[in-house]
Structure formats: C-alpha cells, structure tokens
Amino acid sequence: MSRILFVVTGADRLTLADGTTHPTGFWAEEAVAPYEAFRAAGHEVVVATPGGVVPPVDRGSLTPEMNGGQENADRIAAALRSFTELQRPVPLEDVRLDEYAAVFYPGGHGPMEDLAVNPDSGRLLTGALESGKPLAVVCHGPAALLAAVRDDGTNAFAGYEVAAFTNAEETQGGLAGKVKWLLQDRLTEAGVRVRTGEPWAPNVVTDRNLVTGQNPASSAPLAEELLKLL
C-alpha cells in the first residue's frame, strides 16, 4: 500500500474581473472518482490544503444537473461523506514529498484563486515532477502549475503536454467573460502545451510522469492512468 497525496484548494470563492466573487471550491466528482479508485487499489490517501483548512466543496458540483440526474448526485454526495480524510487535512506548507508515492490535484475553480499563486504548492509540484513520482492533475487543477516557477523565471512544466479545462468549456459554462484569466491561455503563455479534446468528453494526456485530465469526465480515467504509473 502506498500513500497518495491529494492537494486540494482551500478557496471557497473565485474573484472575478469586476471584483465580485463566484462561489466555488473543489469539484466533487474530481475528488471522489480518484479517491474511490485509489482506495479500491489499497492505497492510503492524505489530504493537504493551504494552511490546513478543511477544503470547501463547490456546491454546484453536487447538483443533479451536473451529475446526470438525482441518483448519481446522491451517490456522489454519499461518497463525499465517506471521504473522511477531507475533514482532517495537513497544512500544505508542512508536506514532505518523500513521504508519498504519488501526488494528485483535483479541480474546481478554487485552484485559480489560491493554488495558482501558492509558492508551497509550486515547489511541491516542481519536486514531484523532478522526482519522477506519478503526478496527476485534472480540470482546473492545472492552474496550480502556474506557480511552479524556477529561479530563472521559467515554468517547470514548460514543454510538457497537458490536458486542462479549455476556453470552449469555460465559455459554455458561462464564466469565460467574467473571470480574470482563462486557464488554457495562461498555461500556453507559460510554455505548457495544452492538448484539447471535445468539450466535456474524457481527455487524458500522459507526458512522462505527469498525467492530466481536461474535465470532470476525465477524472476516473486519469485515476486509472495514475495507478498504472504506480
């Protein structure tokens, strides 16, 4: 049994371009599907957040509309309640990478608010990438890659191929015209090569020890790819 580190946002709102805020957090399915896969494979999960705050779930990710109906919404909510590690996170700044076999970042818009500018997360991501440990990031989670900046100002993930939440999906979701920046654009500006798939369809990209997924539908297949790397 290995220990897998879940790095989860601590932000419950996203600051928009006009200064107002949009309620957010982590996206339920993107935490639940990998958690279930990792636990079923016999691995231990440890959750870390900035400051060790209990991570907030994006309430929108629990609605029937976002889960293909009430039945699956109820299943996701129940699975989230059983994910008790979320209630006792360790402070991200205290994490020692050598204690974990793999690292995983779920999405939701929360990472755009805190992990995108968090130096502790940036150092952890750079260390995980350089160590060769399996590293998986999904949906808006790749916003955290923006904080992985080397001393010379370059991004540690420059040149890597990734999947991430696309401009098309942000537009269809209704926030593209309201956010301060678009994830696909910022990753591209940092030198990261974003490989886009069809909106809302599973799209998983593996580049060396880095596995990334485009959207919530990519979270389960991404978890399977991470398990293969383990």
The helix/strand order is EEEHEHEEHHEEHHEEEH
Gyration radius (Cα, Å) is: 16 Å
Query: Total helix count?
Result: 7
Share of helix, binned: 25-40%
Strand content range: 15-25%
Unreliably modeled segments: none
Keywords for this entry:
single chain, 230 residues, alpha/beta, 7-stranded mixed sheet, two-stranded antiparallel ribbon, 7 helices, 30% helix
SSE layout:
Blueprint: E1 3-7, E2 13-15, E3 21-23, H1 28-40, E4 44-49, H2 70-82, E5 90-91, E6 102-105, H3 110-113, H4 119-131, E7 135-138, E8 161-162, H5 167-173, H6 183-189, E9 193-194, E10 204-207, E11 210-213, H7 219-229
Parallel strand pairs: 1-4, 1-6, 4-5, 6-7, 7-11, 8-9
Antiparallel strand pairs: 2-3, 10-11
Helix pairs in contact: 1-2, 1-7
Describe this structure in words.
With 230 residues, the chain is of the alpha/beta class. The protein has seven helices and eleven strands. Helix 1 packs parallel to helix 7. It starts with a strand and ends with a helix.
In short:
The chain has 230 residues and is α/β, with parallel strands linked by helices. The chain contains seven helices and eleven strands.
